[in-house]
Amino acid sequence: MKVRLNRIAHARSGDKGDRADIGLFAYDAETYAVLKREVTAGRVAAHFAGIAESAERFELDNIWALKFVLNASLQGGGSRSLRLDNLGKTIGAALLRMEIDAPDTLPRLQARAQA
Amino acid sequence: MKTVRIGSGLGFYGDSWRPVRASIERGGVQYIGSDHLAELTLAILQKDRQKDPNAGYARDMLPMLAELFPLGRAQNVKFLLDAGGLNPQGAGAALADTFRKLGIKARIAVVTGDSVMERIDELMAAGESLAHLDTGADIATVRSRLLFASAYLGAKPMVEALEQGADIVLTGRVADAALFLAPLVHEFKWGWQDYDKLAQGLTVGHLLECSGQASGGNFGGDWESVPDLAHIGYPIAEVTEDGTAVITKAPGTGGLVSFDTVRQQLLYEVHDPRNYFSPDVVLDMSTIRLTDLGGNRVEVKGASGKPRTGTLKVVGGFEDGWMGEASLSYSWPDALKKAKATAAIVKTLLDEQKVKYDELFVEYMGHNALFGPIAENDPAEELNEVFLRMAIRTPERKAAEGFRRHFPWLALSGPPFVTGAGIQGASGLIGIWPTLVKRELVESRVKIEMLEV
I want to staple B201 with a disulfide (CB 3.0 to 4.6 A). Which of B5, B22, B181, B354 is the partner? Predict the structure, then answer.
């Protein structure tokens, strides 16, 4: 099924120079495996087309997390950006809007279905 | 077993220190590390210093310490702060002055030597290129516009200051996490080659450097599950000699220290988690084990350290044009449509009047200011209200200042149901110049001055 990431993961974003960066966190190992498969650097770069030039991904199996770095995404950096969100504080939420294919058997989706 | 308890101070210039009171009164902390400097902050402090050469430090440090230092006196709580910004000496003098007036006694150590602004020629003569760390661009392209350049110092001078008996250590630019690593090295006598212990200490520092972000603040998950943010407790680390730490907070405070809130902060503003560079050690986060012990306690262990590199990072800032900014608010019906029409009118006038600008940026707050191209369009027709925000980047200050004139008249002569004009003067934009410099060229100049008040 198609699932928005915010149903199965959480995130925080920040900045360094002209790069925004996002930590994406799965609530369980099963979901982490799905994120690893689906939320590739290429998909994320496409999601942020028009915002970032490219995306890098790092994997943290020990805490079920993926780290994304969005290159050239802050108009040159916080102190020269014209944006309201000059520091990329909300860009993590923008990632949580992304839709991926995920099995409806994931624990978070099951828990929601039963609730 | 000896345990050292360190609490989080401010996470940025302007942050609240109310939660630090709870850490001191009920959290049993021995040290408070307070990070007043984001990358952007030096740019703000430079603007202050241009107006007043005695300024250029984070002034919130004065009322903060006037309140918190006496509060922690009975327990001998020591403070480490990078609030010196671009002017640690000025900060030290101002703090000593404030304490004298209030009759507070303290040993204040001031760490200097991080600024390399006056040493650019000397460093280049010593063979440093100072090229842009990411783009490789030549520093000559910004040299005449350079406003400041400061190296990130490590924990060493702060450890020395503590060894000299400082109650308060005031620095300029240091690695944020080093404010917390320093007391651990001092207390446990860790060696500078104990890489795994240094890595644990750096991890603790990284978790504590952003105040409430490790204890349920700005939690991008199930934020409604975080109780009582009004009384959030800032994170406290209980650290043992081998570097194992428990992240917690003062009893009776709000917020949440859990596996989720702690791991969000672990990766915050990190590039490659296997190579998190600092002046003291290179941290590999991939071996860290986080265990939620329940009751707002999360154990952190297993960080791996690798030897520090031979260079320090320097962050410089240069004048990079001017911004003019204005906003107008439009109500339903057609809120977005009217805001767009107004943006087009302003653009027409700017072009007709041949205003020179490099970029004209338009956002529709309430619709796409935060999400940009990712914003969805479907409900746009029915929006209750939209705030039009426009900004220009221009090399000319006059053009930035004149930008505001294009807005007020639209209240009477533009699209209807409009109010709330927010109009800013020109503000100077600052480009950031990250680069590397051989560490001994900086470290050999670092000094500690002790002020006895």
Answer: B181
A61 touching B, CB under 8 A? yes
The three-point CA angle B304-B310-B311 to 5° equals 105
Is the pLDDT at A112 greater than 70? The verdict is no
Residue spans of the domains in chain B: they are 3-114+152-309, 317-431
For an interface test with B, the pick among A84, A91, A112 (most B C-beta atoms closer than 10 Å) comes out as: A84
Cα(B318)–Cα(B145) distance, integer angstroms: 5
Is the pLDDT reported for residue A40 higher than 70?
Answer: yes
Judge contact between B426 and B33, C-beta under 8 A. Answer: no
Name every chain B residue with its beta carbon within 8 A of the beta carbon of A19. 271
Among candidates A19, A50, A67 on the partner chain, residue whose Cβ is nearest the Cβ of B267: A67
Q: What is the pTM of this model?
A: 0.96
| CB atoms closer than 10 angstroms to residue A103 | 11
Q: ipTM surpassing 0.85, yes or no?
A: yes
Please write the tens of the pLDDT for every residue from B198-234: 999 999 999 999 999 999 999 999 999 999 999 999 9
Enclosing H/E stretch for B238: strand B236-240
pLDDT < 50 positions in chain B: none
Is B271 close to A63, i.e. CB distance below 8 A?
Answer: no
Q: How far apart are CA A73 and CA B378, in angstroms?
A: 25
> Is the CATH number of domain B317-431 3.30.70?
yes
Q: Which chain B residue shows the shortest CA-CA distance from A28?
A: B260
